[in-house]
Design brief:
- The protein is 37% helix and 19% strand.
- Strands 1, 2, 3, 4, 5, 6, 7, 8, 12 and 13 form a ten-stranded mixed β-sheet that branches. The protein has a six-stranded parallel β-sheet with strand order 16-15-14-17-18-19, with helices on both faces.
- The chain folds into two domains: 2-260 and 478-497, 3-Layer(aba) Sandwich (Rossmann fold), CATH 3.40.50; 284-474, Rossmann fold (3-Layer(aba) Sandwich), CATH 3.40.50.2000.
- The N and C termini lie close together (12 Å).
- It is α/β, with parallel strands linked by helices.
- The structure holds adenosine-5'-diphosphate (ADP) and alpha-D-glucopyranose.
- The site of adenosine-5'-diphosphate has 18 residues, from α1, β14, β15 and α13.
């Protein structure tokens, strides 16, 4: 099948979170399964043009009553043959930031930036004379692609000038995070160059505003999300982010497919970011990683004390209020009351960054590195004994899977992908791969961490067995690719699949 990934992120080119890891790893796995997979991304300012190949001739993109001109660059996704196309536009992407920056976290012209990008995708296909069977759009920044497919490109009821080439293309919208929907003022619609019918037809309207993800959900032929539990959760009020009704109405078109772990990036036996390597049969290297992590964070080097690690975007989704909320969060009590060390690498909300600095000033066993560092993220996964991930909600979560592979036992809330990948410790049998609680509160995090630390000091036999079990868990992108393939095949006209 010809599969086009429309995404605002893909490692190593542009990343703000797990979306980037997922898009690249899934593309590689689908290519290994024999598909013709291609990725299209905006060329953000941070993606240097050196080393990219420029395609000949400009791309004309009709938008908001005018034609915008774009250059197209091309590269190959590392460790694969997947072509990656970059849509270049100085006005929309010639600035720092994917969605925004510290001063302006959500660029005011994001509706126009991503409308341009999504519209350009179709012009790119025409330029390449390559028309996908499946267009897989990821999250709100790519949610307009299914809308354009339905209203201007596919030759359906409302046809545009060039309709026809995309008549057989089917759109899948993958929801990596329902918490971000792309909600803007209604007036943005005028700049999308969609027929007026699309305002109601695509369901843009959202409580007096315009909602990009909602329109994508309405127009895509099928919907996926990144774990089976999250697929159920988003159809109910608590996790539905005000779209649960719409998602329930599309229940039969919605499926949860669990993400995997990219073994090129995350394998403790060969990970280039680590000072020593290890596997489940020889854990000596893990002890060396723990010492290196303690040093990197300025903690006393000590094998005997359990090290709790965390790598996270510092946003409410990740449970940071319950963990770090000033006067309220549990991290201070954990570090004050228990014989532990805590090392966190994170960046995000300013209050939280400040509180991490404050905790580090008050506690000798708590250290934080503020900012983004791929190398330290790997060192924390490898060097820590436990991994803290008390998410309020978690569509899939990659970090707990990395932790399991690295023999670092996760402490998690039982939600979304965390519920699907971690199994709770059973004191009697010693079974399990981590430590889970149901309701998010500072108390629950404190008690569950206390339970994990109790195990470290009192049941080293259980701890070692859990570590082994964790490292043997398989989270394979090939399995995910197999499930996506089955879904895609089911969407194509029956004659084609029989061939
Ligand atoms: P989300 O996408 O919601 O942030 P995931 O667990 O799916 O959560 O993916 C997070 C990814 O981003 C992981 O690869 C993790 O290592 C990485 N990450 C998050 N914050 C940082 C940081 N401050 N430094 C380095 N890597 C980070
Ligand atoms: C989102 C989610 C995260 C998921 C990632 C990749 O960023 O927050 O849970 O793992 O996408 O699908």
């Amino acid at each position: 099948m010809k599969i086009l990934m429309v995404s605002s992120e893909a490692t190593p080119f542009a990343k703000s979170g797990g979306l980037a890891d997922a898009v690249s790893a899934l593309s590689r796995a689908l290519q290994r399964a024999g598909h013709d997979v291609r990725i299209v991304l905006p060329r953000y300012y941070s993606i240097a043009r050196d080393g990219l190949i420029q395609l000949e001739g400009p791309l004309g993109v009709p938008l908001g009553g005018q034609e915008h001109w774009s250059a197209v660059f091309q590269a190959t996704l590392p460790n694969s043959q997947v072509p990656v196309y970059f849509i270049d536009h100085e006005g929309f992407f010639g600035r720092d930031g994917i969605y925004g920056n510290k001063a302006e976290p959500d660029f005011a012209d994001n509706p126009q930036r991503f409308a341009f990008f999504n519209r350009a995708v179709f012009q790119l296909c025409r330029k390449l004379a390559w028309f996908p069977d499946i267009l897989q759009a990821h999250d709100w920044p790519s949610a307009l692609a299914p809308v354009y497919l339905r209203f201007t490109e596919s030759g359906g009821e409302f046809t545009g000038d060039f309709a026809g080439e995309f008549a057989n293309t089917k759109a899948v919208l993958t929801i990596h995070n329902l918490g971000y929907q792309g909600v803007y003022g209604k007036s943005a619609f005028e700049s999308f160059a969609l027929p007026w019918e699309a305002w109601h037809g695509a369901g843009f309207e959202f409580y007096g505003s315009l909602n990009l993800l909602k329109a994508g959900i309405t127009c895509a032929h099928r919907l996926t999300t990144v774990s089976p539990t999250y697929a159920r959760e988003i159809q109910a009020h608590e996790q539905g982010c005000m779209l649960d009704g719409l998602l329930r109405s599309r229940s039969s078109d919605l499926v949860g497919i669990l993400n995997g772990v990219d073994l090129h990036e995350w394998d403790p036996a060969v990970d280039p970011h680590l000072p020593a390597h290890y596997s489940s049969t020889d854990l000596a290297g893990k002890a060396a990683c723990k010492r290196a992590a303690q040093e990197a964070f300025g903690l006393p080097v000590d094998d005997k004390v359990p090290l709790i690690g965390m790598v996270s975007r510092l946003t409410d989704q990740k449970g940071v209020s319950e963990l770090f909320g000033p006067l309220y969060g549990s991290a201070w009590h954990i570090c004050h009351d228990m014989a532990v060390q805590f090392a966190i690498q994170g960046s995000g909300e300013t209050w939280c960054e400040n509180e991490l600095r404050s905790l580090a000033g008050r506690l000798p066993n708590f250290r934080a590195r503020i900012g983004y560092s791929e190398a330290i993220a790997h060192l924390v996964e490898a060097g820590a004994d436990f991994f803290m991930m008390p998410s309020r909600y978690e569509p899939c979560g990659l970090n707990q899977m990395y932790s399991l592979r690295y023999g670092t036992l996760p402490i998690v809330r039982r939600t979304g992908g965390l519920a699907d990948t971690v199994s709770n410790y059973d004191e009697k049998s010693g079974e399990g791969t981590g430590f889970m609680f149901e309701h998010l509160s500072p108390h629950a995090i404190y008690d569950t961490t206390g339970w994990a630390i109790w195990l470290w000091y009192n049941r080293p036999d259980h701890f070692q067995a859990m570590r082994q079990r964790a490292m043997h868990q398989e989270f394979s992108w090939d399995k995910a690719a197999h499930e996506y393939t089955a879904l895609f095949a089911d969407m194509l006209p029956k004659e084609e699949t029989k061939k």
